[in-house]
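Quick one, tokens below. Sequence please?
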């Protein structure tokens, strides 16, 4: 769709105070604007009338990447009294045995969609890699970039994570390039990321604008099974997850035409929550297990 002129902004960060909005060092990088379409992209946020579109993420580079010192101090300084002090502040070494072999993963709405190549033992890895994916609703979409340290014979630890909520990032523009600090891991550094969203002319039904990854949860106080008259354990399963309700919660209906399971939350119990990876194509299967039978009775 065409970019609506009514949505055009001045391209300045609305979260900054008025005294700093015109400060040159606090403006987002716009790059070279060659035509009217590019100028509209950098000054107009995505259109809420067209929430679905293509989201592009590019990880350019990381600077001052280093591992947190989790071993503490160096211990006894006997014989090393006259060593020079270590430099304070960000890491400036480009190569060292203590530096990580880093790579980045890009996650759209809790789904892993891309992984970069690993850059061996460097504090300033340059990736310039990214991906484009269809996003159902940019207003609720979250893109997460995680940086990991590639290690042999063990899990790759997280050096840092950058969560990007599109509705917060794309307030004045459809394209943003910024530096973000790495947080939430065992490392430090800053990563440069470019984000671009362009809408497409399609309107999905409201019930299809959500994420693929979700949680199936019962909000009612009980589950009814009409024309069933056996005390049984109720087991529920979906793609990759399962849950059960004990037979002690099974009771007969007052009308006598079936059974019900009381799932009122008590002290953290009876909390039926099933993680679902593919929300729109995952079935929920109910199984009734009675005593003396190894397989499901119904």
């Amino acid at each position: 769709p065409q970019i609506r002129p009514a949505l055009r902004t001045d391209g300045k960060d609305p979260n900054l105070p008025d005294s700093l909005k015109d400060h040159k060092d606090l403006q987002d990088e716009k790059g070279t604007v060659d035509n009217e379409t590019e100028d509209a992209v950098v000054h107009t946020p995505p259109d809420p009338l067209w929430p679905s579109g293509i989201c592009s993420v590019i990880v350019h580079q990381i600077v001052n990447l280093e591992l947190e010192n989790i071993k503490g101090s160096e211990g006894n300084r006997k014989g090393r009294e006259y060593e020079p002090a270590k430099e304070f502040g960000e890491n400036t070494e480009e190569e060292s045995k203590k530096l990580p072999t880093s790579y980045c993963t890009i996650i759209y709405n809790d789904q892993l969609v891309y992984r970069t190549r690993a850059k061996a033992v460097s504090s300033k890895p340059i990736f310039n890699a990214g991906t484009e994916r269809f996003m159902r609703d940019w207003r609720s979409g979250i893109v997460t970039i995680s940086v990991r340290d590639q290690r042999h014979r063990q899990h790759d630890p997280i050096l840092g994570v950058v969560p990007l909520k599109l509705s917060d990032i794309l307030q004045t523009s459809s394209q943003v390039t910024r530096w973000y600090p790495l947080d939430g891991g065992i490392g430090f550094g800053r990563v440069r990321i470019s984000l671009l969203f362009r809408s497409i002319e399609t309107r999905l039904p409201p019930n299809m604008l959500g994420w693929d990854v979700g949680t199936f949860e019962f909000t009612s106080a009980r589950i009814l099974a009409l024309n069933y008259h056996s005390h049984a354990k109720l087991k529920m399963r979906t793609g990759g997850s399962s849950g059960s309700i004990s037979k002690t919660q099974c009771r007969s209906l007052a009308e006598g035409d079936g059974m019900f399971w009381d799932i009122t939350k008590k002290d953290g119990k009876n909390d039926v929550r099933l993680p679902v990876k593919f929300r729109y194509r995952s079935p929920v299967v109910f199984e009734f297990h009675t005593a003396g039978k190894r397989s499901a009775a119904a």
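The helical segments are 36-41, 166-169. The longest helix spans residues 36-41.
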